[in-house]
Design goal:
Oligomer: heterodimer
Largest interface: A-B, 12 and 9 residues
Number of strands of chain B: 2
Number of helices of chain A: 18
Helix content of chain B: over 70%
Structural class of chain B: mainly alpha
Strand content of chain B: 5-15%
Order of helices and strands of chain B: HHHHHHHHHEEH
Structural class of chain A: mainly alpha
Radius of gyration of chain B: 24 Å
Distance between the termini of chain A: 94 Å
Distance between the termini of chain B: 50 Å
Largest sheet of chain A: none
Number of strands of chain A: 0
Chain lengths: 380, 244
Amino acid sequence: MKFTFKPSPNYRNEQSTTHIMHVLTIALLCVFVFSAAWYGMRFSFAYGLRVILMGVCAVVAAVLTEAIYFKIMGSKNIMKDVSRSYGWVTGMIIVLITKIDVSYYAIFVSTVIAIVFGKLVFGGFGQNIFNPAAFGEALIMNSFGASADAKVTSEVLSGATPLTSMSAQGWASNQTVVSGVVSDLGGFGSMILGNYATVIGGSCALLLIILCAWLIYMKVIDPRLSVTYFVTVFVVSLITGLIHGAGVEFAIFNLLVGGVLFCGVFMITDPVTTPVSIPGKILFAICAACLTLLIRWKASLPDGALFSILLMNMLTPAIDKLCDGSQIKDAKTIQRKVCIVSAVVLVITLLVGGFLKNPEAESASVANQETAVVETVNVE
Amino acid sequence: MSEKKTKKQGFFSKMLTDNPVFGLYLGICSTLAISTSINNALGMGAGVIFVLVLSNVVVSLIAPITPDDIHIPVYIVVIATLVTILQMFLNAYAVDLYTALGAFLSLIVVNCIILGRAEAYACNHNVKDSAKDGLMMGLSYTLSLLVMSLIRQVLGTGVLELTNPFAGSAVIFSIRLIPEQFIIPMFTGETGAFFTFAVLAALIALYKNKLAEAEAAAEKAAKVAAAKAKAAQLAKEKAAKEAA
C-alpha cells in the first residue's frame, strides 16, 4: 500500500488546490471591483483608485516577501513556489477587511509581517496555525491605528458607523433604536446593497451572498462552516433581540454590519486553519459565531468577526482532538461531545446577550434615583 | 559543550553560543519586558552584572560550608540581599531608571540566570573562575538586552536616545532614524518583543547549527584521514613483508 504525505487541504474529489485558489481569487476580485466602483462613485474617483492601489500594494508586498523568502531558503524554482503559496489571496483579504483610511505603509508592513510570521515560519501554505489575513488585520488594528490618513478619515468615515452607534447604546436596544440606526444608513435595502462605508469589502451583503452561493456551488468553500456561522449569528441575536424587544431587525442588523458576512464567506472557510472533521467544522462555526457576538457586544474592539476567527484558529487542534476517532463508528460519542460543548457556548452567549444593559439608560436611572433621594430629603 | 572546545572558541563566538537569553533561554521574562529602550537595557544589564558577579563570588566562598539540604534558600538569601542593596542604591541615585525598571528590578532575585549560575557553576569552582563566569554571563545578558532594545526602540519609536540616569535624565544623544509616519508602534509592545526575540533566537540557533556542522565535517575528515593513513601503513607493512 502506498501512502502519500502532503499538507492540508486534502480533498477527496478531483479539484486541485490551485483551481480552488484561482476561483477564490476571482471571487475576491469581484468584491474589489464593486468596492472600488462604489467608493469611486459615492465619494470621488481618487477613493476608487485608492482601493485598487491598496490592493496592489498588499499583493505586491505578499508576493515579494514570498519570493525573497524562497530565494533565501534556496528554492530551485522560485516562480513555482510563489505560485503554490497563494500569498496574493492573503494580501487581498487583508485589504478587504481594513477600512479605507489605513495608510499604504501600514498595509505593506502588516502584509509582510503576516506572511512571514503568520505563514512562512510555520512551514508555508498548508502548515499555518492562524489565518494569515486575520493575523495581518489584527496587526493593523493594534499597531497602526494612529497612522490612519486623517483626510480620508474625515471625508469618508466621519459619520458614526453602525457599530459605534449601537455600542453607544450597549447593544441593549429595542425596536425604535434599531430602526433609528438602520434608517440612518438608508434602511435595510441600502444596507443589503452596500450603500454605506464600513470595512472595504464588507458592505455589500447581496454581492457577498451571491459569491457565497457561487463558491459553494463550485465546491470551493465548505457550506457547513459558512452556513452554520451565519445561522448561529442570526439565531443568537434573534433571541437576544426578542429579550430586549427588538426581534428580527436586531438579528438582521447583526448579520449585515461589520465583517460578519465577509469573514463568513472568505475567512472562516480557510481549509488550513479549520478542523478536519464535519462535526468539528460545525462546532468551530458555532463557537466562532458566539465569540463574534460576545466580542461585538461586550469588548472594546470595533468588530468581533476577525478576532473570533483568530481565537478559534488557536482552538482548532483541540476541536480536532475532541472529534478524533472513526467518524462512522464513534459518530454518537462525537456528536454528544459536540452537542455538549456547543450548548455550553450558546447558553453563555445568550446569558450575556440577555443581560446586556444600556449604559446611558442606566446612568439616567441612577441620576433619577439620586434626584428622587434628594427630593425626599428636601421634603423631610 | 566541553571545556576544551569552548576554550578554542573566540570571546564573541562564545558569547553567542553560550548566550543565557537566546542560547539557554534563561531570564526571558525580564528580557521581553525591559528591552523597550537602550536606557533600560543598559541599566538592567549593569544591575544584573553587579548582582551576578557578587553572588557568584559569595556563593563560591560559602559553598563548602553550606549544608546540601538548604543550599537553595541560602543562595536565594545571598542574591536577595544583593538585589536589595542595588534597589536602594538606584532609588537613591537614579530615580528615573528605578521607576522605569519597576518590579523587574526586584525580580532579579528570581532571574533564572543568577540562581542557575550559582547552582551550576559557582558552587563547585573557585572564586576567581566564578567571578569571571559571572562577568561573562552578565555581559552576554546585557548584550542580548541591548540588541533587542536597539531593534525595538528604533522600529517602534524611530528615535535612538540615551539619557544619563544619574543626572535627572539629561539627554546624552538622540537621533531620529525613522520618520514619524513610518514607525511600527507594535514593536514597543509585547507582540514586537516576541517577534524580535523569536528572530534573534532563530539566528543564534542557525549559527550554532553551522558551528556543529563544521565541527562534524572536521571530525569526519579527520577520521577519513586517519583511516587512510592506517590503510597506507598496512599496505606498506604488507609490501615490506612480501619483499622479505
